[in-house]
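Worked Example 4.2. Consider the chain below.
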Amino acid sequence: MPTPGTNLLLRQRVYEQLRSAIEQGRLRPGTRLPPTRVQAQSLGVSRNTVLWAVQRLQAEGYVQARVGDGTYVAQTITAPPAQGLAAPPRGLSRRGRLIAETAARWRPPLAAARAFRIGAPEVATFPFAVWDRLARQTSPQQRSAQAQYLDPAGDPGLRRAIALWLWASRGIRCDAAQVVVCSGSQQGIDLIARLLLDAGDEVLVEDPGYPGIRASLLGHGALARPVALDAQGLCIADAAAQWPAARMAVVTPTHQFPTGVRMGLERRQALLQWARTHDAWVVEDDYDGEFQYGSAAQRVPALCSLPGSERVLYVGTFSKTLHPGLRLGFVVVPTALVDAFAMARAITDRHAPGDAQAVLARFIDEGHLLRHLRRMRDLYQERQQVLREALADASDGALPLQPSDRGMHLLHECAPGSDDETLSRLAQSAGVMLAPLSRYAIASPRRGWLLGYAGFDAQEIRAAARVVGRLARR
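Applying the procedure from the previous section yields the following structure tokens:
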């Protein structure tokens, strides 16, 4: 009888063979894969081995499953040059290869932000003078203390400030001891995957959804199972039927990335019930949760604030509310898991910089975060209106954008399965960042373009709109 390690190695080899055939053009875009039973017979392996390989290719975006019609090589796959692809460096472990390979599917942008890059906040008007003044107020004794090795779970003052802020702004009741400070939401997702998932575990992810989440899951050997979205977000009833063995769901319920839909109360309760019934975890990435533009009474509280949310881990970041260079975020976890998360953080990079944590704690306590967010909400609403009017004028109405009462970007959706890559490439060549919706899809046929507006002034928005409008008319 083959051992579990042998089975895993065999699955990996089948996966690599299929992926190589796709990347080198032997299986062209749009090609229908043979049924898994036929592939298993030809390779001399079990059908489950082939299913595992195909499902991982689907999670990575190499293939797309069509209900009742089979599995096809994704149309967006481009054949490499004749010399082939660079293989991962020799000597990597299996987990190391997984991490190296996921980098081919998702790379954080390194170029300076320009319109219409999504996820880029306004940084020019950040109150740096206030921040510097708070830093100068630190006493010599405090500086000496912050220069030492610190608690990997985070500065006690910052954890306390975050807990109070979450109660006031997102309706989340938690103890400061449940807050683990980390370097942004991406590290939070990584800690969760490392501590709560084993290789081969299934995780429900939104489709379309954020590729950085999938990259982290795949890098740890988990299987990202795509779940379609409707007007309420992730369809948990369909997901439970299709993936009954799933041990986790990762959602962006307040402002789904990238479609912008909001998960209603009934769907949220169904998701929590699924977690309780299946002894599973729900990871709430509160994407743009602070950028809801109605009155405070109209803002939807976090999923984690609902009764019965004991199986929810809440991931937050200051990269959007303040600025990405701060590199501070947090995870709210059940009390029993805090020590494990703190040790995982210690193993990774010991702890976040003490001086930045202390200044941020005072920044929150003295009300500067609240005042900054109020200014940004007003500013972002104005910029959204500029974008809608400028693009409508520049495209002669060909690219209308519906208003939104939340978020930092807008979506123009076009016909399912249509080409949204060409316009994005043309815009890129003209100096405009225009992300195609297909870039964030696994099996979903949804197509369109994402336009970020938060980090760009009216002049830059109008100039970029003229470029996109001209290309769209052509």
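Residues 115 and 433 are 6 Å apart (CA to CA). The chain has three domains: 4-86, 128-368, 371-473. Compare this with Example 4.1 before moving on.
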